[in-house]
Amino acid sequence: MEYGKELLKSRIAQIHDPVQKRLLQDVLVDVFGELLAYSEESFQNLEHKIDSERCDPDAHYAVYTGVCKRDGLDSASRSLFEMEIQREQERAPGYLGTLFFACDHLQIRSCMAGTYHVRVETDLGEYETTASLSYCRDYLEAVSRLYQQFMANKRRWHTINCPYIYKFLDITDREGVVPWDAVISKVEIDLGELSEIVMDDMVPVWNITEEICKPKVEVAVAGNVSYYAHHIPLEDLDAGALAAPEGEDLFSVVFSQDEMLVRTENEAHHQLKLVRLRPMHPQKDQTALEYSLQTNRRILRHADRQALGQPHYLWTKGEVERMLGAYEVFSEFELEDIRPDMRGEVEALDMNPFLRVHSFLPQKRKIALILHAKNSSDIFRYEKMFFLLAELQLCTEEYEWIGIMR
């Protein structure tokens, strides 16, 4: 509407005779103004119609992540659940425990480069040894399993924006002093000045849960091959669902408006595991989060929806900014510049280590994304930047994206 007013002003300003100016003003405002308003309304209705027909297929598969103290979990929550891990019956060699470090990425890297004196109390006695710190393997493997489930269900993978799991560090016995079969009751680690920012009762949460359903199973035939068809009704149409049948390496999933069909060849699963991605209901959730909730959800504008089915050609700064602008977390940054052939100040954190890309371009050109964090005291700003870099990397295999924080 403001554009229409400026257009009318520019046309009227060209007339100097006051009588003719008044006549022209009446004609433009009454006739042309109504025509302009009608045209704008028609274009808006057309955009809404196209958007409704071309929705984001990943809208129900957004992942929300947070972190809280163990006693801050909401057992009645409909949205946030503790991140499930699959611990082995026997702990990993040298594993002594996991700590949460409330510091930025640079300090985390410094912590992992050092060694620390540890005193361990077990049912077999007390031991003193030296330990090292590394990213928590259990939480990284939980994200890797989720990726495998996305691939098995033929769903597009988006990097999980979970800066919190990169603050959980495993304590590992470097000398192998503590017996592997000892039951550990207490671990005292000398972290010096870092002791004030370390917590041992924190757990990551996300909007993902597993459940067992009882599908309707029937036998079907395709050519000379028979298979089992599992019909699973989708009760919550706002939630995403992934099938995870036990013992099936190859299976197919077909989604309809209110049902998912899982086809297996080995056996009929009268109890089938589903991975649910729940929608967020903040007003109904009482989880006591220590930091703000993070997500990889995208807010798509009309141009973004049109670009969903098109190849990604990130040749300009404007196109990169348009793509990144669809992610909620990008609102915490300002894009200063994009420069080729620059070296990053900090080694990038690979948030998708489970991807194996076989490229015909082994010598990739490095492109630096220079960002300014609006909140320089945010201890998660580097991990959020690495999330954006990982999403760009998924779309442009020919480049190697690096980040520079200003």
SSE diagram, text form:
Blueprint: H1 2-12, H2 18-53, E1 64-69, E2 81-82, E3 95-101, H3 105-112, E4 116-122, E5 125-135, H4 137-152, E6 168-173, E7 184-189, E8 198-199, E9 202-206, E10 208-213, E11 216-222, E12 225-233, E13 240-243, E14 252-255, E15 259-264, E16 272-277, E17 294-295, H5 302-307, H6 317-324, E18 333-340, E19 365-373, H7 381-395, E20 399-405
Parallel strand pairs: 19-20
Antiparallel strand pairs: 1-9, 1-17, 2-9, 3-6, 3-8, 4-5, 4-7, 5-6, 10-16, 11-12, 12-15, 13-16, 14-15, 18-19
Hey, roughly how much beta strand do the residues contain? Answer: 25-35%
**Gyration radius over CA:** 27 Å
Shape: globular
- The strand count comes to 20
Helix content percent band: 10-25%
Distance between the termini: 38 Å
Q: What string, H for helix and E for strand, traces the elements in order?
A: HHEEEHEEHEEEEEEEEEEEEHHEEHE
User: Can you list the strand order of the major beta sheet?
Assistant: 7-4-5-6-3-8
- What's the total helix number? 7
Low-confidence stretches are: none
The assigned structural class equals alpha+beta
Q: Give the averaged pLDDT, no decimals.
A: 84
Main sheet characteristics: 6 strands, antiparallel
Detailed description of the structure:
The chain has helices at residues 2-12, 18-53, 105-112, 137-152, 302-307, 317-324, 381-395, and strands spanning 64-69, 81-82, 95-101, 116-122, 125-135, 168-173, 184-189, 198-199, 202-206, 208-213, 216-222, 225-233, 240-243, 252-255, 259-264, 272-277, 294-295, 333-340, 365-373, 399-405. The strands form five sheets. Strands 7-4-5-6-3-8 form a six-stranded antiparallel beta sheet. It has a four-stranded antiparallel beta sheet with strand order 2-9-1-17, with no helix packed on it. A four-stranded antiparallel beta sheet has the order 11-12-15-14, with no helix packed on it. With 406 residues, it is of the alpha+beta class. It is globular. The mean pLDDT is 84. Strand 11 and strand 12 form a beta hairpin.
